[in-house]
Amino acid sequence: MISKTYTPQEIEAKWYQYWLENKFFASKPNPDKEPYSIVIPPPNVTGVLHMGHMLNNTIQDVLIRKARMEGKEACWVPGTDHASIATEAKVVAMLKERGIEKKDISREEFLEYAHEWKDKYGGIILEQLKKLGASCDWDRTRFTMEPSLYDAVIETFVRLYNKGQIYRGVRMVNWDPLGKTALSDEEVIEKDVQAKLYHIKYPIVGTDGEFLTIATTRPETIMADAAICVNPNDERYLAYHGKSVLIPLLGREIPVITDEYVTMDFGTGCLKVTPAHDLNDYELGLKHKLPVIDILNDDGFLNEKAVLYVNQDRFAARRNIVKDLEEAGLLVKMEEYKSIVKTSERTGAVIEPKLSLQWFLKMDEISKPALENVMNDNIKLYPSKFKNTYRSWMENVHDWCISRQLWWGQQIPAFYLQDGTVIVAKTKREALRKAQHEMQLFALTEEDLTQDPDVLDTWFSSWLWPISVFDGIENPENEDIKYYYPTNDLVTGPDILFFWVARMIIAGYEWRGELPFRNVYLTGIVRDKQGRKMSKSLGNSPDPLDLIEKYGADGVRSGLLFSAPAGNDLLFDDKLCEQGRNFCNKVWNAYRLVEGLEVSNQAQPSSNDLAVKWFNSKISQTVTEVQDHFSKFRISDALLAIYNLVWDDFCSQYLEIIKPAFGSPIDSVTYQSTIEIFEKLMALMHPYMPFITEEIWQAVKERKAGETICNTSYPVAEAINIQVLADFDILFGIVSKIRETRNTKQISPKTELPLAIKTDEPARYQPLEAIIVKLANTSKIDYVTTNVENAISFVLKADEFFIDLAEELDVEAELENAQKELAYNLGFKKSVEGKLSNERFVANAKPDVVEKERQKLADAESKIKALEETIARLKAM
Fold first, then answer.
1. Are 95 and 117 spatial neighbours (Cβ–Cβ below 8 Å)?
2. What does pTM read for this prediction?
3. Looking at domain 544-720, which of 1.10.730.10, 3.30.470.30, 1.10.357.10, 1.10.287.130 is its CATH number?
4. d(C-alpha 102, C-alpha 404), whole Å
5. Domains of the chain: which residue ranges?
6. Which CATH architecture has domain 10-156+462-523?
């Protein structure tokens, strides 16, 4: 017997432990089974569970549990990403609390502290995923900095370098002055801000007081200006082509150049060109062979090249230069300006475009297979609308800056001789051997080699994830990689479609010659009721563990997926989880009802036999629908189909049909059929709601030790009795109309009502009579060939149904209501006719608007005719 009340906390802890102890989630290659594998998008070791993780991992768990039940060898590989920038920041903060500065310790000591921090905090999010019910193969948990995955990254770098695809050079990068490292585009957050636009005079050389005015949001960079650029077609500045101007305050002479890149109708039409501190200016500088003057140190303070404001922070320098420009009469005006500022995702610092010596991966050739195989649908994106975004990115791909100025991460395997010669090798020993044998430098020792201090971009390890988790880089023919790769489905967010998904596809074709996964399911962003992205800073994101504690994991999982169509944002409301919890309670109480029935060996009523046939067809119909939804990754739609089947068809209809009168037993055949139906429903629900379904599945019958719903067969569609389904649709229509009549006429549900059916097929309804009588509380059912006078009627399909309310009907009240409704409809008809008789309206309105008005008129005329007949009938009573 299950308990009276559903208590998710007790049930969830019990069954998850049971699953783990019995290794139900463990997987190994099995040639007799079809493999189904997915790899988790590895959360950062610094991370804790948030709503995006909840949505993403719930969907993955639904997919993996369903595949497991379908008899596939299901393998969900979990793991975490070392998150170079975020983790290093955490470790630096920890050291400061202990009174230790990073600069005062060695790299080796720092890494010891980093591993200490990771061992203490790095697995928190994976433990939290267990609370959600995630059925990962935990024995396969990987970490991007563990030795074998570390070695895979180093091996990848060396191979690509030897193929000429990796190079070192000075390029414009996103620079984090607080973290003192280059960043990739995905590590940059764009923020809308209210900035100031400063209009500054640049005196024109050789004129008497003439000047050009430029508008800039960054006046502190004018000391790095290399030119002023105007559009060659801008008539305002034709006289100044080829002239020079003086940089305000500094007095350095720079040329006026022309380029159509400059927009004439933005700002003043004059652009200050600062090649060292703006990517577009850098490209313009290359084109016009302008000098590059970098006035900022790595920490964001001005250096000696600035001449002015040396050793001042960039924002302090901005305040001071504005003040000095104003005092010198060189500041025309300041105005408010809506701008976008790029900030570091990890430190929050404002990003500086900066020329820096970094390592890059050439992307033009290596990315071609990744573009081709998404465009031809070898790899499918769901929803497909993201193909255009993907194509746009991939057709305009830039070389990837893969180096980071950090200590936590895979250290770049490049070693330098004292003269600057670079040797790329997996280890210092291999680099020394190359120097001695290939360069004939036999006197060299390891002490003569210095390894590059930088580490590789975190994405340079995670782009290998589907391969490296199966040790497929260094051991490309091992059993796991040959069996589980390519993986099947990837579930992730569209925000990293290029930065992670595309790069994994590139790596798949580069290292395995094939795709890394067949389908990419792109979730939406979880937003609050106001449409705002959930974040800690806004305080609008609930703690997922609090939600699980309040609503249960099944309630939260189903609540999230009730409104989570692929690629579309989810407007989250606690009421969704409440709906999920209510669904759990509904299922729980339904089973308690069945479990509490007394069973006897009496003959099965024909109505129960019919109900069982109907509901089994309904299950098959729903299974077919669910499978279709899954094939199109409509995970939310599949859940709604199951929800409707269980809540409406099973609880509200089937149980009401087969439930015996109070105090009476149920026949054993129907009871056994209902238990079997419950098993099917639990199996159908299990991928979405694993805990409650395991509890009920275990309760419906005696199970052997070690049995679980996790491994039971997923329901398959059997023969569907179309006729029974159609008959029951009419049956429920009849019941609904009779109940509607009771509500309208305020007739008690306990009052029996007579029903007459005008039909050419009485045999169709006769098997359903007992069910109609039970659900609608009818006193009798007659079959007639003519209309029943003075009765309420309704039509379903081709048949008409009559409810004789002679004894229950207040004729005068009904007549009064009918006359009021007739008067209203006559007035409505008159207003629509007036609109349609207006030639101007008919001539100028859209055709569909006119058609709607004509339809309104037709509807009103039909209602008027029906009401007139009703009034005539009531007057005759």
1. no
2. 0.85
3. 1.10.730.10
4. 16
5. 10-156+462-523, 191-348, 544-720, 724-803, 811-876
6. 3-Layer(aba) Sandwich (3.40)
Rg of the chain, C-alpha, whole Å: 37
H or E element in which residue 355 lies: strand 352-361
According to CATH, the topology of domain 724-803 is hypothetical protein PF0899 fold (3.30.2320)
CATH of region 191-348: 3.90.740.10
Residue range 306-321, pLDDT digits in tens: 999 999 999 999 999 9
Band of pLDDT at residue 343, cut at 50, 70 and 90: very high
From CA 655, how far away is CA 594, in angstroms rounded?
8
pLDDT higher than threshold 90 for residue 402: yes
Domains 10-156+462-523 and 811-876 in one fold: no
Sign of CA dihedral 354, 360, 364, 366: negative
Which fold, 811-876? Helix Hairpins (1.10.287)
For 627-683, the pLDDT digits (tens) are 999 999 999 999 999 999 999 999 999 999 999 998 899 999 999 999 999 999 999
Cα 261 to Cα 217: distance, rounded to the nearest angstrom = 19
CA atoms within 13 A of residue 660's CA, in its CB half-sphere: 18
Phi-psi region of 172 (alpha: psi -120 to 50; beta: other; left: phi over 0): beta
Cα angle, residue 504 at apex, residues 503 and 507 outer, rounded to 5° = 85
Q: Are strands 380-382 and 517-522 parallel, antiparallel or unpaired?
A: parallel
Helices (H) and strands (E) in the chain, counts: 29, 31
Q: What is the mean pLDDT of the chain?
A: 92
- Helix (H) / strand (E) element for 817: namely helix 811-836
